[in-house]
From TrEMBL, chain B:
It holds the Pfam family Biotin_lipoyl. This is Acetyl-CoA carboxylase biotin carboxyl carrier protein subunit. Signal peptide: none annotated. Keywords: Biotin. Residues 1-70 form the Lipoyl-binding domain.
Length: 518, 71
């Protein structure tokens, strides 16, 4: 007598689990242009690297003879796997069963994802499509599930701990509502599929009932809404691009806070200069320039990965490499509201600095900051509070900073672009001071201008006089910057800095003084 | 057909194209003034300008339709 009957049943259960919600449900899912959770996992991971946790978790149904009749697998798929040879934890709801609303075993696996990631100190990727709990509970209307006991562990503790410990990247691949939507944004990087995803705190039916608002899923929570308001960092054309972006994000990240980000071999010469940088900044201060063009030129070729391009658009944040070393990149975009610090731009910048601080990534900052955004809308958005939050976050960081003064550096807001003991270099086009001369002169010298025979000429004269004082040369004379540099040599200077800070990085490892929150 | 929408509000400083005109990709179509900065908008494709939805001096808003170009 052996255990063959049982091992056969194990094999049978495993096979049944792979059938997910059944042929029809899968066909319907594919018909909507969507991949199943198992296809998503396979596409994300290196081929054959998935090691599943709890494939036999679920509900078994038996016939009259006590034989296994059918098996409903847990509707959350979870396991270990590898992305570009590096191990991660991956999980996601199975929409082909109960529309991704958790079954009892599905809920257990889903909650386990963060705990596993923290326990094994591995990056966590969650691929979301599903809704939260049903009013009938996980067991359905007829079920008699007990409410959780008072001494149950705090439900979201592990979600917060994961964010303080390991990189968390998430994707919205279909409709994501309720609890999965909350978990989607509890991440360091999130991306949504423009073709297939919506993100909803509550769906159209609940909204219609409670608010009397008749909206479609896309109107409520499609990509046009959520890539612009910062709910997700990035939009992607489709599911496949979402997974590619997650792979890209992970390539910059260490596996956890106790290790440094992986430095790769770099074939882009550190002394590569770029002639175009000599005239990229127009001498006319009213004329905008293309900051992304500078970023592409200075950092390792093709290495820049922008995060949050759709919101807080006056600020540009992303990851890149300098001679193979991953760094955080933060820059102003003068083409959007002059690059000023808006409320949403400040929020984006704060989260970004927290990401760098959590994972010990040095920050390279390209500064063209005219100051906090002003005007009635800016006041309504509490810009000064969000902006000051960014300023103080920068002041509390411990990672190395290099700040390149590209053009403007004004007011309180500019302080957010310089870290403590940062390395500061200035381009000849740099200007700095309490506020830009154009606005400042008209206010501070109001009477003098009004009293002049030709007020307009006097205003221009004063502006010229004062802008000379904002030039980087007197600043350099006073050791107010480490050096003035030729813009063409920016890459070389930054690569030297990266080499110099290498001995400082190991000491940064471990829990950050403050960690990132959504 | 490509519709160019405005990234931000501001005022229209210069309009450098008109309906019926042939434009090349990268050519500047119009320049907004936003927070005392000139912000040029370039043609994303080469083609014929079908419509320009504002005039110099107009106050404009974010997401407003600006120019339409046919390939």
């Amino acid at each position: 007598m052996n255990w063959k009957a049982e091992t056969d049943e194990i094999a049978q259960r495993r096979q049944l689990a792979l059938e997910q919600g059944g042929t029809d449900a899968i066909a319907k899912h594919h018909g909507k242009g969507k991949l199943t959770i198992r296809e998503r996992v396979d596409k994300l991971l290196d081929s054959g690297s998935f090691e599943e946790i709890g494939p036999t978790a679920g509900a078994a149904n038996y016939d009259e003879n006590g034989e296994l009749d059918s098996f409903d697998p847990a509707n959350f798929v979870l396991g270990f796997g590898q992305v570009e040879g590096r191990r991660i934890i991956v999980g996601g709801e199975d929409f082909t069963m109960r529309g991704g609303s958790p079954s009892p075993a599905g809920l257990r696996k889903s909650i386990y994802a963060e705990e596993l990631a923290v326990q094994y100190k591995l990056p966590l990727v969650r691929l979301h499509e599903g809704s939260g709990g049903s009013v009938g509970g996980t067991s359905g209307k007829g079920g008699a599930s007990l409410p959780g006991p008072v001494n149950a562990p705090a439900r979201f503790r592990s979600v917060a701990e994961a964010m303080a410990t390991v990189p968390v990247a998430t994707a919205a691949l279909g409709a994501v509502a309720g609890l999965p939507a909350g978990r989607l944004v509890a991440s360091h990087f999130s991306v949504m599929s423009k073709a297939t995803a919506q993100i909803l705190t509550a769906g159209p039916a609940v909204v219609a009932r409670a608010m009397g608002e008749q909206k479609t899923k896309d109107e409520l929570g499609g990509w046009k809404v959520h890539t612009k308001n910062g709910t997700v960092d990035n939009g992607a054309a489709d599911e496949t691009e979402c997974l590619t972006q997650i792979q890209r994000f992970l390539s910059f990240m260490p596996p956890n806070i106790e290790q440094l980000a992986p430095v790769i071999d770099c074939d882009d010469p550190v002394d590569r200069t770029d002639e175009a940088l000599l005239d990229i900044i127009p001498r006319d201060r009213r004329q905008a320039f293309d900051m992304r063009r500078i970023i592409r030129s200075v950092f390792d070729q093709e290495s820049f990965f922008e995060m949050g391009a759709g919101y807080g658009r006056s600020q540009i944040t992303g990851l890149a490499r300098l001679n193979g070393q991953p760094v955080g990149v933060w820059a102003n975009n003068c083409k959007f509201l002059a690059g000023s610090m808006t409320a949403d731009g400040a929020h984006k910048a704060r989260r970004f600095m927290e990401l760098c601080e959590t994972f010990s990534l040095p920050i390279a900052s390209l500064v063209d900051e005219p100051g906090f955004m002003i005007g009635s809308q800016a006041e309504r958005e509490a810009t000064i509070r969000h902006g000051t939050s960014a300023v103080l976050t920068a002041a509390m960081t411990t990672v190395p900073w290099a700040s390149i003064m590209i053009r403007r550096s004004f007011g309180v807001a500019q302080a957010a672009h310089y870290g403590p003991n940062g390395y500061v270099l200035a381009w000849p086009s740099a200007e700095s001071g309490p506020l830009p001369v154009e606005g400042g002169v008209a206010v501070a010298f109001q009477r003098e201008i009004a009293a002049a025979p030709d007020p307009e000429a006097r205003r221009r004269e004063l502006e010229e006089e004062l802008s000379a004082r904002q030039s980087p040369f007197p600043r350099a004379e006073a050791l107010g910057v480490h050096d003035l540099i030729d813009p063409r040599e920016t890459r070389t200077e930054l690569c030297r800095w990266v080499d110099r800070i290498q001995p400082l990085l190991p000491a940064l490892l471990g829990p950050a003084r403050f960690s990132i929150r959504p | 057909m490509i519709k160019i929408e405005l990234e931000t509000g501001g005022s229209v400083w210069k309009v450098l194209t008109k309906p019926g005109q042939r434009v090349e990709a990268g050519e500047i179509l119009f320049i907004l003034e936003v927070m005392k900065m000139e912000v040029p908008y370039e043609a994303p494709i080469s083609g014929e300008v079908l419509a320009v939805h504002f005039s110099e001096g107009d106050a404009v808003e974010e997401d407003q339709l600006a120019v339409e170009i046919a390939e």
